[in-house]
């Protein structure tokens, strides 16, 4: 037996020793809970049309549900919140409380108009949910995507156009497209089926209009399966990454009119797993594009850094991961500070900074408390279930609580 | 469930659980998710014990359920991710084997998805080549060639002797 076979055998035994096997009584309990959930299913299943690239196109139906009643005041301190910013001051926070692995979750919705200084409770659609996420479509339009305890394999959607006061249920179905339009302010881009998705999906970009239709952007980026940034950079650059005609990764940029795109091929080693792989941030007159993925083992390594000094018209690669040797990890989005630095949240090193556009990194004097995410309000870091920090310029951070 | 069925089910559980977890791990690359999916598969089998006890290979039946659960979960996650274009804030915790195996485990995780799956299913979940082919829905020859390339890649990474499959 070769050394490799011996090592594989030892690894197999090692992995087996780490596997946690619960007692059979736990399996029996789980089986009983499954049985109860299935009996609770009433009426037709809301079927999700899972085309090759599923898209949440929303078409309004007569609302069969009674008006949502405000939930009883939550114990907010024990409920973790996920915050979604619409613009620099408006945000929604979705709180989730799941009493047990097999019990339905309860969700709470809060809204702020002063960047988290104060919060107002809003309502949520009634129901017993196994899972759920919030997507903010405009300052007053939010969509709650969920799976119910009666069938966790199908996703349902509820939409509110008044900031979470009234909700209507939507079927996820083949979309009705609207006319192409430029990107409205404070409205995120999303991936859509530009051909309607009835027989296969031709992926492209668009936005949800107030007419409940998805409006493609006037000109689509010339890349296959584009993965866009939902919101623009501070100076208004919209971007998307996809495969070009030659099959290479490429970044396309445009402005809010989306009438023309400038596309640049990228050289990124390793294996990319969209949609979390790409980030574009902006600071001190430069755009930075980063790609994360796997290379040479391990997880979530920083594969490449590109910089543009002309709002994405041209890009220069400043860093490329090598196939061997130690790799730098990156979690969350990078931070481009107003004084020309690029910050990366890495493990186990902590926060690293570059003063040469991403070519080299050293440990930063100010350590970020967690993984940042670029939002319309700037960079946001979640510290605790209800505690966040926000910064517009990457240098000055303010803490806010969701309560 | 009758006593004889309970005994049979308990034996099936003891015999197959770890292998099925590793089979799920091949597809999820997440040991925690693999455990949860495998427990769900056994819960499904528990509710249908009489029927499962009559199939030719209850373990193969369970493995099919595991594969289907993985695919459903992946579709839902892809759907959520694509809808929300969400950035992951923190990496998921990874259960590590004992330290002596970290290099090889790291090397396996660094393989491309196709090669990683065959290595984990054949060498770690201990499935024969024809069952690996059935799980992945590819020809046996494809599995063999992927295994050969994966072994070569692992050996190169670890600088060990290569035995041809």
Portion in beta strands of chain B: under 5%
Q: Termini of chain B, distance in Å?
A: 44 Å
Mean pLDDT across every amino acid position of chain A: 80
> What is the structural class of chain B?
mainly alpha
By DSSP, the count of extended strands of chain A is 29
Shape annotation of chain B: elongated
Q: Poorly predicted ranges of chain A (pLDDT <50, ≥5 residues)?
A: 37-78
- Taking pLDDT < 50 over at least 5 consecutive residues as the criterion, the unreliable ranges of chain B are 82-100, 160-165
Characterise this structure.
The complex is a heterodimer of chains A (403) and B (165). Chain A is 8% helix and 38% strand. Chain A has helices at 3-18, 24-40, and strands spanning 58-60, 81-85, 91-97, 106-112, 120-122, 129-136, 142-148, 151-160, 168-172, 190-193, 203-208, 214-216, 224-228, 238-243, 249-254, 262-265, 271-272, 278-283, 286-294, 301-308, 316-320, 335-336, 342-346, 350-354, 362-363, 372-375, 378-384, 387-391, 398-401. In chain A, the strands form 7 sheets. In chain A, strands 1-9-8-7-6 form a 5-stranded antiparallel β-sheet, with no helix packed on it. In chain A, strands 17, 18, 19, 20 and 21 form a 5-stranded antiparallel β-sheet that branches. Chain A has a 4-stranded antiparallel β-sheet with strand order 2-3-4-5, with no helix packed on it. The radius of gyration of chain A is 23 Å and the shape is globular. The N and C termini of chain A lie far apart (62 Å). Chain B starts with a helix and ends in a 7-residue tail after the last helix. In chain B, helix 1 (3-28) packs antiparallel against helix 6 (113-124), helix 2 packs across helix 4 (58-84) and helix 7 crosses helix 8 (140-158). Chain B is an all-alpha fold and 165 residues long. Chain B is elongated. The model of chain B is unreliable at 82-100 and 160-165 (pLDDT under 50). The longest helix of chain B has 27 residues, at 58-84. At the A-B interface, helix 1, helix 2 and strand 8 of A face helix 1, helix 2, helix 4, helix 5 and helix 6 of B.
């Amino acid at each position: 037996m070769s050394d490799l076979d011996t090592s594989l055998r030892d690894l197999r035994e090692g992995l087996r020793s780490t596997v946690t096997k619960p007692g059979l009584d736990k399996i029996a309990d789980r089986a009983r809970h499954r049985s109860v959930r299935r009996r609770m299913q009433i009426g037709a299943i809301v079927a999700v049309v899972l085309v090759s690239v599923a898209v949440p196109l929303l078409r309004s139906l007569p609302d069969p549900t009674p008006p949502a009643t405000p939930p009883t005041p939550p114990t907010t301190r024990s409920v973790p919140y996920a915050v979604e910013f619409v613009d620099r001051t408006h945000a929604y926070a979705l709180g989730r409380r799941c009493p047990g692995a097999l019990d339905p979750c309860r969700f709470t919705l809060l809204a702020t108009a002063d960047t988290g200084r104060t919060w107002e409770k809003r309502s949520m659609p009634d129901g017993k949910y196994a899972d759920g996420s919030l997507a903010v479509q405009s300052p007053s339009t939010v969509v709650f995507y969920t799976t119910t305890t009666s069938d966790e394999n199908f996703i349902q959607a509820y939409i509110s156009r008044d900031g979470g006061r009234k909700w209507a249920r939507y079927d996820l179905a083949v979309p009705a497209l609207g006319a192409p339009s430029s990107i409205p302010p404070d409205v995120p881009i999303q991936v859509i089926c530009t051909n309607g998705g009835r027989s296969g999906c031709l992926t492209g970009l668009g936005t949800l209009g107030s007419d409940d239709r998805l409006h493609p952007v006037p000109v689509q980026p010339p890349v296959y399966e584009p993965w866009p940034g939902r919101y623009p950079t501070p100076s208004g650059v919209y971007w998307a990454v996809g495969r070009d005609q030659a099959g290479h990764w490429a970044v396309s940029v445009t402005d809010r009119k989306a009438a023309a795109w400038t596309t640049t091929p990228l050289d990124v080693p390793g294996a990319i797993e969209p949609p979390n792989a790409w980030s574009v941030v902006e600071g001190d007159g430069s755009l930075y594009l980063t790609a994360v993925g796997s290379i040479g083992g391990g997880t979530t390594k920083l594969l490449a850094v590109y910089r543009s000094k002309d709002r994405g018209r041209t890009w220069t690669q400043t860093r490329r991961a090598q196939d061997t040797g130690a790799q730098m990890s990156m979690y969350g989005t990078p931070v481009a500070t107003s004084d020309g630095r690029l910050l990366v949240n890495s493990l186990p090193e902590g926060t690293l900074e570059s003063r040469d556009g991403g070519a080299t990194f050293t440990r930063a004097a100010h350590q970020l408390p967690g993984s940042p995410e670029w939002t319309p309000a700037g960079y946001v870091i979640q510290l605790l279930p209800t505690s966040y920090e926000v910064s517009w310029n990457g240098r000055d951070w303010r803490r806010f609580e969701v309560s | 469930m009758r006593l004889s069925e309970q005994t049979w089910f308990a034996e099936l559980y003891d015999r197959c659980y770890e292998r099925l977890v590793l089979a799920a791990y091949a597809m999820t690359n997440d040991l925690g998710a693999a455990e949860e999916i495998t427990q769900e598969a056994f819960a499904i089998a528990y509710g249908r014990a009489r029927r499962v006890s009559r199939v030719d290979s209850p373990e193969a039946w369970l493995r099919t359920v595991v594969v289907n659960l993985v695919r459903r979960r992946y579709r839902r996650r892809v759907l959520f991710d694509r809808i929300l274009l969400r950035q992951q804030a923190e990496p998921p915790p990874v259960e590590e084997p004992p330290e002596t195996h970290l290099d090889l485990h790291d090397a396996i995780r660094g393989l491309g998805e196709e090669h990683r799956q065959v290595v984990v299913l054949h060498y770690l979940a201990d499935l024969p080549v024809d069952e690996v082919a059935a799980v992945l829905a590819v020809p046996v020859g494809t599995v063999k060639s992927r295994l050969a390339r994966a072994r070569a890649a692992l050996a190169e990474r670890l600088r060990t002797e290569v035995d041809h499959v």
